[in-house]
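Sync notes, pocket subgroup
Present: LS, DG
LS reminded everyone that the earlier model was apo-only. Rerun requested with 1,3-dihydroxyacetonephosphate included. Inputs:
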Amino acid sequence: IVDKTSLLKSIDQLRKSKNAIILAHYYQEPEIQDIADFVGDSLALAQWATKTDADIIVLCGVHFMGETAKILSPQKRVFVPDLDAGCSLADSCPADEFADFIENNPGHTVVSYVNTTAAVKALTDVVVTSTNAKQIVDSFPQDEKMIFGPDKNLGDYINKITGRDMLLWDGACHVHEQFSLEKILDLKKEYPDALLLAHPECKKYILEVADHVGSTSSLLKFTKQSDSKQFIVATESGILHQMKKESPEKQFIPAPPEDPTCACNDCFYMKMNTLEKLYLCLKNETPEIFVDENIRLKAVKPIERMLEISA
Ligand code: 13P
Ligand code: SF4
């Protein structure tokens, strides 16, 4: 199938005939977001995986998102259009090294960001997303000794806003670490009324000058509710699609990266999923996500704990 209209029609027919649901993250290509049954942040995608009665979930996002859906709903078949859609942040935290870190710091509650492999979640006491990280950390006594992994920028930000001193794993996301403070400040001079929105995976010096820091869903909500007409957006470019759809009269300017020649506002992994791969995935029922049952049984507990606290 070559033309987009027939591709969209076929995806729709397959989804109906196979009782499949298409869940998409805000960083997906606009055409994938538009055909999805639901578009959301990583918390909302996990919540959907538990409440849908579809037999098949096609998770248009990255591998850990598909894995989280499978861990929560093992009776469903979960597919990701491109199995190579990984995550540099999840890659920055190999499970064996994280296990050593935990062992070297006994007596700590282990908090892991959802951007991790199932094996890391299996070592974890409670999972968080950027939407509920503050709420979940706040639910522990102030003097609780805690480890936070793998994103050091999010961890440092949560330490700051909760008044904690969690031990941080030294991991980061290649998309969120590349924004240029100097160029953002130049843009703010050019657009003096524009507000700077930043995902908490950005570096500390970007978060310090941001007008609003939050998860993808939080940034989107802010743009809808704010009276401001212009925003500089320091996160992956896919979110601009929903921002423009929700507020067509407003202007959204992607925050500039250090290297002007790179396409680094796009998450290379998120953008591996295409409409054609989505179609093939529904048609051929591959590539499928599988999680070792021993790991799944350990990993499901901290994810369910997160869902309970943030319900
Ligand atoms: P959200 O949980 O804010 O959707 O972020 C997911 C992510 O991968 C950020 O890079
Ligand atoms: Fe992972 Fe960064 Fe891509 Fe998010 S934007 S999926 S953290 S690599």
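DG: The CA atoms of residues 26 and 239 lie 5 Å apart.
LS: The chain is about 45% helix and 15% strand.
Action: DG to write up.
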